[in-house]
Amino acid sequence: MKILVMSDSHGFSGTVKSILKKERSCDAVIHLGDGGADMLEMNEYTAGKPVYQVKGNCDISAYNFPPKLISYIGDTKFLACHGHAYNVKNDLGALFYAAKENGCTLALFGHTHIPLKEQYEDVTLINPGSVMNRRYCIITKHYGGIEITHCQLNDED
């Protein structure tokens, strides 16, 4: 199972499209906010795949995305959020505790625009970086666990 995770596209729908085209083999897509509208016309690239979206601090109120999502990648329970409500620009503690309280071993967040993978106890915190900077990540679920790969589009993409 291969999951595409992106965040903070802020109107760069052309870059979203390029990422989706490059990563066509993904089984699902998660957008972590601040650019929810950028996903609205991407059905050609996401058809038949689950698409999960959460609301960022810059997403207008007309979009009814949840502020956070708790779900599974295989048997790995994860929390997905934009991150602003957990003050992730200053500290990752609140996000870590929110993941722990919900029984999650993976916490996906955006907001800072900076790619990150950090382990705190049994929780892995992942920020894919910003689509504005052509960054995203791929989570690959294997029988033995998960693999996180941070990616960046190059000039040919």
End-to-end distance: 23 Å
Low-pLDDT stretches are none
The Rg value, from CA coordinates, equals: 14 Å
Order of helices and strands: EHEHEEEHEEEEE
The biggest sheet, with number of strands, parallel, antiparallel or mixed sense and barrel status, is: 5 strands, mixed
Residues in helix, %:
10-25%
- Whole-number mean pLDDT: 93
**DSSP strand (E) fraction?**
25-35%
Describe this structure in words.
It is a single chain. This protein is of the alpha/beta class. Helix content is 15%, strand content 34%. It is built from three helices and ten strands. The chain has helices at 13-22, 43-46, 93-101, and strands spanning 2-6, 28-31, 51-53, 68-73, 76-81, 106-108, 116-120, 123-127, 135-142, 145-152. The strands form two sheets. The protein has a five-stranded mixed sheet with strand order 3-2-1-9-10, covered by helices on one side. It has a five-stranded mixed sheet with strand order 4-5-6-8-7, with helices on one face. The model has no long low-confidence stretch (mean pLDDT 93).
Task: Furnish the topology, listing elements before pairings.
Elements: E1 2-6, H1 13-22, E2 28-31, H2 43-46, E3 51-53, E4 68-73, E5 76-81, H3 93-101, E6 106-108, E7 116-120, E8 123-127, E9 135-142, E10 145-152
Parallel strand pairs: 1-2, 2-3, 5-6, 6-8
Antiparallel strand pairs: 1-9, 4-5, 7-8, 9-10
Short description:
The chain has 157 residues and is of the alpha/beta class. The protein has three helices and ten strands. The strands form two sheets. It has a five-stranded mixed sheet with strand order 3-2-1-9-10, with helices on one face. A five-stranded mixed sheet has the order 4-5-6-8-7, with helices on one face.
